[in-house]
Each structure stands twice: as structure tokens, then as C-alpha cells.
Structures
1.
Amino acid sequence: MHTLQRLRCLSLLQNYKSSFSTNHIIQIHSQIISNGLTQSPSIVAQLVERYCASSAPHANNYARLIVSQFYSHDHKSNPYLLNVLIRCAPPTDSILLFAHWVSKATLNFDDFTYIFVLGACARRVKTLWEGLQIHCRVIKHGVLSNVMLQTTLIHFYVNHNVFAFAEKVFDEMRVRTSATWNSLIAGYCSQIQHARDGLLLFINMLRGDYGVKPNDTTIVCVLSAVSRLGSLETGVSIHGYIIKTTPNIENDVYIGTSLVDMYAKCGCLDTALTLFHKMCYKNVLTYTAMVSGLAIHGKGKQALKLFTNMTESGILPNSVTFTSLLFACAQSGLLNEGLSLFQIMKEKFHILPLPHHYGCIVDLLGRIGHLGEAYEFIMSEKVEDDVVLWRSLMHSCRVHNDIVMGEKVAMIVMNLENYEKSEDFVALSNICASVGRWEDVEVVREMMNEKGMDTNLAISTVFA
């Protein structure tokens, strides 16, 4: 009977769907308790996973309580369940949980414990100190030789921009997997100041001295670096390598999307379009990359047409897609289309506007001189606390020589700042200078002197 009940509970947990409410998990949990299965590691582990996957406020508390009760019995030599909780819980909870059990010193950790908690540190910003302490503990307990653990350390350090430590871990590794190479390459390629380092590491990987070949993830990373650098020659060389090593490249949606993005950002829009149309499979990322490329090149109407094709194909746009579309409208001066897209995004696709969406609309209205409408848009959308939007409008006032609106917006910007910035005074000075109000320019300069700001700035070309 006990075995049957165990199998039944396992079946309930395995068939649990994310659409179910937390009450369903609690009901299954009750079945586990009533059948005396709270000390079965496999059942309790799945129960913990289900609680961690729930969005209910107290679900993670239930998961932690289950783990504590499990280890209140004699399971001190097996960290399996703790590892499950650290892996599944939100990053902050995972780190706190690890710290709690470290302080108890009653549980023996294994390699996976460190892998999962370092993974949590990699996903959580401002956890460099915690990660460094865990790294020290790893060295102390002599488990640093684990390749997965070393790879996770690299991932952690690059996510915190400590490339020197990431490189040290990488250089000291005797065995490196493709995931190891990709962790460091991806870290380099994600930042323009390190993008060339990523390409150099990719070249070292290609030499074949390490027995590891690039995979799709590697290629996507280095193509993103090329896109950031705008290095067309390098991109063409990588494309040639892909053609030689990847059969039926048009079937690979991720590499295809990366190539489309790279060529568009390197100025070869026609090549990007050709590759786009040759692709057998396209997803939202593919369409977004192509829309973005068209936007960069001022092809607003083509971008809108592509968006229509996308929705007719049954592919739903995401937030980034609309950012690219709104940017395309701003670049091409498509006012009605841009405003319509903004409403469609909210009402039809139920996507909440983010700061960059608002920024595109303010930029669109400002470019064509609808400064009053831009002002009303910011106020009506209740984003008047976003200083970036006001600065964008202030720039448009400078371009269109609207001194009245410019002064009004400048005062808003200065009142919003926690501390006053010289750039805002410079912008106001430029607006006054653009309409020949030189006395006001001097007043602004005197205000800057009183506040101890540098007035020896090229204020006439800040917005050029």
C-alpha cells in the first residue's frame, strides 16, 4: 500500500501544471503528509520544485519549511534536497538559504551546492562579496577542480564585470568544455569595451589546440560582438566559417537571426534582407532584428509592412519589437502610425509601456515640432518623474527654437534632479542662444558660477 501511495503522489507531482493554483500544491502536500512520505527525497524534492515555481507570496516559505523539517531528521550527509531548493528558489532566497546552512555547520555540502549558489550569485546583482566568500570556501574545501563549478565561477565573475578573476579561473583550468569557453566569450561580447577580447578568444578556440569547437551559442555571441563593433570584415569572415561548418544554415533560426542583426547593424541592409527571406524558420527575435535594421536605416514604412507580415504569420510581437517599431516611426516621422502602434501595443497585445517606449513617442513628437503634444503626452501618461523624457523634449525645444517651452521644461528638469547637473544649465543656455537672448545666456552662466559649475563648456555644440 505504501508503494502505491508513493507512486500516486509522484504521479500527482509530475502531472502538476503551472496553471494550477497554489491550493493544488497544498492538497498534494497534504496527501504526502497523510501517507507518511515526508522523508522520501524524490517526492519531497519535486514538492519543493513545485512550491518554488509558484508565484504565490508564501510558496517559498513552504519550500524552506519542508527542507528544514527534512533535515531535522537524520539526513545530514545528503545535501540533495537543499540543492534542489537553492537551484529553484529566487536568487536572493538561495543565497540567504546557503548562508543559513553554512552557519549551522550541520550539513555536508557537495559540488552541486556550490554550483547552484554561485549560479544564484551570477543572476543577482550586487552579490560580488558573497560570491567571493563562496569562492574562498570552495578553495578551502578542495572542490575547485570540478569543471562545472569553475565554469559557473567564470559566469559569476563576468556578470559582475570582474574579468581579471574570470580570466584567472579560465587560465588555471586543466579541462575546458564548450560551456566554459562560451561563458567567457559571452561575457566579453556583451560589452563593447571587451568585444574585441571576445573575438580574440574565439580565434584561440578555432585553432583547435584545446579539443573544443565553437557551437551555436559561441557563434551567436561573437556575431553580437561584431554587431556592437560594426566590424563588417570580421562579420563576413565569421559568416564564411558558418557556411563551411554548418549545413543548412537557413534552418538555424538563432544563427540566422544573429546574421540578420549583424549585417543590418554593419550597414548591409540588402544582405540582411536577403538572409531574412531565405530563412526557413523565423521567430519573434528574427522579425525584431529585421525591424530594428530597417529602423536604423530610416525605412519606417518597410518596418511597418514587415510588422504586418509578422502578425499575419501568427507570431506575436514583444516589448522589444515595439521599441524597434516606434523608433522606426520616430526616424521616419510617421506620427499617426507611431501613436497608433503605441495604443495597439497596450490595448491589443497587452504590453505595458516601458521607459524606452515613452521615449520613442516623445522623440517622435519632438522631431516633427509637436512640442506641446509631447509635453501633454508625458503628463497624461503619468511619467513626469522621468528626467530622460524631459531632457529629450528640451533637446527638441532647442532644435525648433521654442524658448517658452524650453524654459518651462528646463525648470522641470532642474527640479527633478536630486543634484543639479551642469548639462541641464548648458541646455537652457543653448536654447536662449538659439533665439539670440544673450542676456539670458549670461544669467545662466552666472547661475552656474554661483553653483561652482564649469562654465568653460562648448555649450553651442552640445546638441549638434
Note: The longest helix spans residues 91-104.
2.
Amino acid sequence: MKFRKLFILTLVLSLWGGTMLFADSASQRVRVIVNGNELDDAGMLTDGKTYLAVRQIANTLQSIVLWDEDTKKVTLYKPNVHMFLFQDSTIFGNVVKGNRITFKVFAQIDNLLTDISAVKVTIEDPQGNESLIQSKNVTIEKDNFWYRTDDTTYTFDTAGKYTIKFYMKMAGSEEWKPVSEKTITAKTS
């Protein structure tokens, strides 16, 4: 009786181990690197097909993802958003640490193939603290438009990279999606 139980247990464990090895070899993790940064668990190779985490890749590429539950369809939108930073009438991208600057953000948007309800512009300091520059509800009926913020005054307290971010809110959604970034470098002198 003991021998029979031991035999059955050995057989079950062998089958289970073999199944786990087969399952592990049937699907493999794929490293996904976007602009030099590796994404966590973004890809898998199964039966010769590569599957990628669409939302994670879209967020990295600053794209908009729409999921249609009824049709089980994923749609990606990548509007072209070009931002320019103006101090008075001068374009800039570098500042001296400690300077308090009044500037405006000018954005030119095209290839907008979906409806949006609002836009916002923020600035993020080198420590990751984000401050709102301006937010506005919009009604856009074409695939391109221009957007300019009001003058904003900001003090660049520390040296490092500050990031201006342009967000869009999809019509019918409350979620803000970042679609463009511009870097301002604050130097010590």
C-alpha cells in the first residue's frame, strides 16, 4: 500500500514538473526597450507570436489608447504636439538656477484624430513635483489647432531638468493623457 502511494505521488510530481517546464518553454518573456529605457513585463513570445502591453508602450510613447469593450478593439492615437517656450518674444530652453522667469508655452497640435474635451500644461521640477501652468476646456472640430498659455511666473530653484508636459483629456473621459514633453535645463551659472 505504501509503495502504491509513493508510486502515485512520484508520478503526479513528475507529470506536474514536466507540465511546468513545457508551459515555461511555451511562452517566453520579451525585453521591450523604448528610447533606451526597458519596460517592465511589456512583452511575451508565445507560439512564435510576440504580444506587447499596449497601454504601457503607448504611455511611454505619449500616445492615447482607447479600448472599445463592445468590439474588443484597441485604438492608438499619437497627435503631433510641438511646444515652444517664450520669455517675452524670445524662445528659450535653458535658464540659470534661482532665476524667476515669466514665460508662456506655445503648442502647435496636428494629426489629432480623436475628440478631446480639455488640455492642460504643467511643469515638473527635478524632484518630480508637478505644478499646473494652465488648464482649459476645448471644443476642437478639426485635426489641428494652436494653443498658447497665459504668462506664468516660475522660479527655477534647483539645478537640473524641468519638464513641461502637455496633456489631453479625451471626450467622455476624466483621465489626462500626456502627449508631449519639453525639457528646460536649469544650470548653476
Note: The first strand starts at residue 27 and ends at 34.
3.
Amino acid sequence: MIEKVKKAIYRHEGKRDYEFSSFYFVVHEILVDRWNKSNTPLHCLAHSLNPRYYSLSWLNEASIHQPPHQDNEISKERKNCLKRIFPNNEEFRAVQVEYAKFSGCLESFTDSDSISDRGKIDPKHWWLLYGSSTPLLQKLALKLLGQPSSSSCAERNWSTYPFVHSIKRNKMTPQRAEDLVFVHTNLRLLSRRSPTYKDGGSKMWDVGGDHHDSFEDVGVLEVANLSLDEPDMEAVIFTDDGLENEGNENIEVESH
């Protein structure tokens, strides 16, 4: 994914692969941070149960691609996760055998339709169609693959809550506050469908504030990255007025 992002950025900036891009440097740091945060046993298990990552189409996309059962780190974390989910030795052994059948295309998974559909249809649909012979694994896969892969959507959603339920409005009921958060979030999503979201002075206003209007706003992206882990930072844009206001930091709080 990082390579695809790099190609898109360098194509937009008209740069060659060996040239330095300050924008890509910041984006790369954000992607690496996200990866490190998501590199957990549960994520490794979900990755292992996605049939797409065993398909020839995905494996042939890049030379570094390999099926999850051949990756030592992923296999180790997957085993740890399965042991925690199935503490009973017999169940753990049974689900391990089911995974061996799935990853190795054995028994019922030798079906040509099952193999060809691994990289073509939605993972949940694939498990519903072809996973009946491995009930433990099928049930687990449907639970994991039906979950969002990132919590950033929830973090951004509830970072709005302190704005809605502030000191001045602390008398409103929790349900009322939740309703306002719901409305605010949906208005944000609707605004992304307007033409002005991609062009003009309010371009991508909810990424890092009204000051974000081009690929050159690297500093804003850094603050936007902080907002994923520190929701209170989302509404704060730090500005430096230079030598004229030396010693005085101007902090502008923007409520979107």
C-alpha cells in the first residue's frame, strides 16, 4: 500500500522516485505509525483469515507478497490469538486443523470455484459460500472480517463529544449529546459529497482545519495525525507569528 501511495504523491508532484518529497515523508510516517498501532495478534488473525491474501492475483501483485501461513511473524501472532480464543486444547487443535485445510487448499477447499473466488468476492461472502466444512473457522472469520480495521472513525466521532458536551452545555442529557454527535458526524460526511470539498477555500476542511488547502501543508498533516491518538488535538491548530510575537504562542481553537 505504501508503494501505491508513494506513486500517487510523486505523480501529483511530478517528481522522480529518487527525489525527496516532504509531503510523502510525513505521509510515510503516518502510515508506519498506523501499522505499528494495528500490528496486534487479532489483526494478524484477521489477515490470516482473509482469502484474498491467498489468491494468485494478490500474490502476483508484488514480489514481497506471500500467503499469511508462510509469514513467520503473522503465524506466531495468529497462534497466540487462537490459543486465547480457544483455551480448550481439543478446540484449539480442531481450529488449527481447519486453518491448515483452508490455507493449504485441502479437502473441500480444493474446489476450483473456491480457489478462483478467493481474490474476486467479498471475504465474508466467500466464507459463507465455502466455509461450511470448517465451522469453527467460519464463525470466527465472519466475526473478524465484519469488523472495521481501524478505530480512527470512532476516535474522530467521539472527539466531537467534548465540543458538544462542554462546560457551558453540561446540563444536556447523554442521549441528547449523542444525538448531536450523530447529526454533526453525518453533516460532516454529507459535506464531503459537495464539489467545494475538493476545491476552493474549504478544501478538505475536516482533515486539519481551514488552513489545509494543498499538498504543501505538511505541518497540518502532522497535527491531523496526532488527532487520531489524541482527540483533543483535533480542534487545535498551532500557528507561529514569527519574530514580531516572539515568546507568545498563538493557539487558535477551531470548532468544526
Note: Residues 209-218, 226-256 have pLDDT under 50 and may be disordered.
